[in-house]
Amino acid sequence: MRKFDWNDLQAFLAVVRAGRLTVAARQLGIDHSTLSRRIAGLEASLGAVLFDRRSAGYALTVEGERLIADAEAMESLAVRIHARQDDAKQGLTGSIRIGTPEAWGTYFLAPQLNLLAQQHPELEVELIANPRMFSLSKREADIAISMTRPEQGRLYARRLNDYELGIYASSDYLQRHGHIDNKAQLEAHTWVGYVEDLMWSRELDYLSEISPLLRPRIRISNIISQMAAVVGGAGLGVLPCFMAREEERAEGLVRLLPDIRLYRSYWLITHADARDILRVNVVADFIAERVQAEGEEFWIDQTIT
């Protein structure tokens, strides 16, 4: 039987996550024939077929499914050992990836990165601000910001802050369609909201919280583009107040029915395997400190009483 090789296990995880041999090979920086040999070698060493080779991609067999948890556990151990060695030898260096919702990453964290870079000039930061959940166990991020607290997995979560959302429209839209004075009028207007099957968190279902009769006619997959559509006069939308603030000051947006106030929370999440990694702990603390420094007025509309 062929001797087990850790590189083959890394190859296995790459194919599992990419789904296609060519994509995984490109991500690993090797040619697809080399990757194919590594997968075949792993199967030979284990005496099991791990993938069904199909024209549409590689599909896991039952044996392949069973291997994932052990492979990820070995990967986590290797990453943790390597990170501890880097921290001990070099201080706060290397790369850290932060996965966030697009609004939080764009409007809050991105402006803070200059300070983080000044404090730790050898640190490389990757900010992934996308409308999605990030898997820390699959190494999609070292730190994740989420709208919900995780209910399972070896994860640590701390609540960062609560924030407020309100109903907004552009002044141009209101000039064309008339001012809105009460909740009963909302059903008669065009709404901008999420593509339902692309809602990556149940917390994004704002409209049903206002009224079960509200449905968006214009559906957009992310909140930044939704705000652009609302500013452009496409319709009414529910927006985080910390996003809408600048447009509101520039008279591009008008908040409607301020007694309707929705609240959500942001959570900072790290993996249990990262508990000894200095750069993860330092950056997580930096984020929490910056949220605290901004104060509640950044997240809650203090002009509404």
Automatic annotation (TrEMBL):
Keywords: DNA-binding, Transcription, Transcription regulation. Residues 4-61 form the HTH lysR-type domain. PROSITE patterns: HTH_LYSR. SUPFAM superfamilies: Periplasmic binding protein-like II (SSF53850), Winged helix' DNA-binding domain (SSF46785). InterPro entries: LysR-type_TF_proteobact-type, LysR_HTH_N, LysR_subst-bd, WH-like_DNA-bd_sf, WH_DNA-bd_sf. Pfam families: HTH_1, LysR_substrate. Belongs to the LysR transcriptional regulatory family. This is LysR family transcriptional regulator. It comes from Herbaspirillum rhizosphaerae.
